[in-house]
Amino acid sequence: MASTFTGVAASPGFAIAKAFRFTNTQYTPQKLTIADAEEEAGRFRQAIEKAKGEIEDIRRITEQKLGVQKAEIFEAHLFLLEDPDLVDAVLDKITDEQWSAEYALYEVTTGVVDMLLELDNEMVRERAADVKDVSGRLMSHLIGKPYATLSGISEETIIFAEDLTPSDTAQLDLNYIHGFVTEIGSRTSHSAIMARSLELPAVVGIGTMPASIADGTLVILDATEGRVFIDPSEEVLAQYREKKQQYDERRAQLKRLSQQPSVTADGEHLELAANIGSIEDLAKVLENGADGVGLFRTEFLYMGRNSFPSEEEQYQTYKHVLEKLNGKRVVIRTLDIGGDKELPYLELPKESNPFLGLRALRLCLKREDLFRTQLRALLRASVHGKLNIMFPMIAVLSELREAKRILEEEREKLRLEGVSVSDSIEVGMMIEIPAAVLGADHLAKEVDFFSIGTNDLIQYTMAADRMNESVAYLYQPYHPSILRLVEMVIKAADRAGIWTGMCGEMAGDLTAIPLLLGMGLNEFSMSAGSVLPARELVGRLSKKEWAALSEQALAMGTQEEVKQFVEQRSSV
Ligand SMILES: C=C(OP(=O)(O)O)C(=O)O
Ligand SMILES: [Mg+2]
User: Fold this and answer.
1) Contact, 190 vs 1, CB < 8 A?
2) Where in the sequence is the signal peptide annotated (predicted)?
């Protein structure tokens, strides 16, 4: 019988196909004590070996079918199977508490997952998903039940699951799987992030799935509105076939722009770049034809692990990104930890106002060892592409000078060691603190570029925590107060002859883009999926016309007026 569900629209698009229910239900073992701890430990070690073999196989197949990047997740899984925090902790529980291997595994991994989830951070949540995935696989070996996989699906299908683990999503064969629906999850859960990066329609968090969704039932997925239609009527089906066709056509049209330059209707060339947090994000950057990477948030390299990444590890990552971008500009931001981003292995004093505390560059100047390691890795990688180094959270000139002094010291050390370093690295800074806007004239004389971080600039200007729902109404990117700050930065940069970019969310916002273009922003860095809609929009806009229109917007009194004004003039 026809029915409809709603959930979170996690990754846009439409799909019409048959349902397939995928279950890998979590097994909760009983608390059992055992007589022979040695034998039990042996059983656990065997499960690890079997899981390793299996993951190796999946990794190889995934690499052949879906490419190296999709297969990378399994490196992390193999790494986990050697992680003492997991393996030794389970073995200790077996020996010390005489617990069964199943119960010891369950106790240790639920503890780790809960601890990671408490950190309430996107990347750490992904790590929690990895731990769950690996422990599910180990458990299946211990209890002798196969761990279900999605790799065998060979019919056009929409997957229904409680949630999808990283190894499930890595195995999705997009020739057959047209979308998925999960009972749990939010826009930032692992499966949602993965769906967006695969551009696969997904609705998550629909709640407990009813039995009426049997395998083979026809389903419409409207992942743009977050709706799922089970066994729809002919009328609804016809309506959605039409919607899907229009959506797919628009997407195909946009894809044609991926190899086109980013140029306005009056011939101004702009740089529409992408933000990344890891090398996994590169596939979409290239596929969408971004003009470069405008922000690599390197803190994610430091998260979801137990110790700092070494210089060599960082060097390899930066080199990889630079090589993949093949001569296009890559702006790599130095560590921006603190505020909402914590590292479990970095002991920091508890602060009552972490967003106003020891974060980002302030921390790097206190912990020079960390900073120097990262700078060395960056300098060494610079010969592999077009590298820009960017410092976050600078408020005053002395911080910039200190950061540059340390950078130059490391450059000199490498020179003496005979290591080559590019001599065309641009060094810039983020503008995300109001004091830096007001001091932009002075700062501009000592950097090669600015990149405006509106996510923080708005919160510090409005004195409204960017994560606090109760004051979310103050988070107003188009407010004339914010626009004036942006204009001040661009003007100061122009006077000093340097370029200005923006890498906060505002840069990819179709309502903000006309104004930013009019104010003279040179580079816009956004999520990879926003690049083509932005390119299409700027192709319709005249910079000259928007220079005049943005003047008018800057003189308005409220965000609402500005928004309405832009939407009327640019038909976004
Ligand atoms: C891009 C920014 O940095 P993050 O979101 O990483 O703080 C910003 O503040 O706008
Ligand atoms: Mg910021």
Assistant:
1) no
2) none
Residue among 294, 281, 289 nearest 332 (CA)? 294
ipTM: 0.99
Distance CA 128, CA 113 (A): 5
User: What's the CA gap between 114 and 128, in Å, rounded?
Assistant: 8
Angle (CA) 24 26 31, round 5°: 150
Give dist(CA 150, CA 134) in Å, integer: 16
Q: Look at domain 3-23+150-233 and name its CATH class.
A: alpha beta
Set 178, 190, 384, 479: catalytic member: 190
Tell which wins on pLDDT, 142 or 63. Answer: 142
Domain boundaries, the chain: 3-23+150-233, 37-143, 261-570
The superfamily (CATH) of domain 261-570 is Phosphoenolpyruvate-binding domains (3.20.20.60)
| Tokens, residue 389 | 């180094």
454 Cβ below 6 A of ligand 1: yes
What CATH homologous superfamily does 37-143 map to? PtsI, HPr-binding domain (1.10.274.10)
Strands (E), 278-425: 292-297, 329-333, 386-391
Q: Are 180 and 171 in contact (CB under 8 A)?
A: no
In angstroms, how far apart are the furthest CA atoms of the chain? 82
Percent of the chain with pLDDT over 90: 70
CA distances from 22 to 139, 297, 432 (A): 18, 34, 45
Tokens encoding 217: 């039932």
Q: How many helices (H) and strands (E) does the chain have?
A: 23, 16
Tokens standing for residue 214: 């049997």
* pLDDT range class, residue 170, cuts 50, 70, 90: confident
Residue 23's Cβ-side half-sphere holds a number of Cα atoms within 13 Å equal to 9
Q: Hey, is 291 helix, strand or coil?
A: coil
The sheet with strand 3-6 has its strands ordered as 3-6, 227-230, 218-222, 14-22, 157-161, 177-182, 202-204, 8-11
Atom 3 in ligand 1: residue holding the nearest Cα: 453
* Under 8 Å between Cβ of 77 and 68: no
What confidence category does residue 25 fall into, taking pLDDT thresholds of 50, 70 and 90?
low
pLDDT(493) > 90? yes
Q: How far is the CA of 61 from the centre of ligand 1 (A)?
A: 37
Q: Say whether 364 is catalytic.
A: no
Has 320 been annotated as catalytic?
A: no
Instruction: Say what the pTM is.
Output: 0.73
Could you tell me if the CB of 453 is within 6 A of ligand 1?
yes
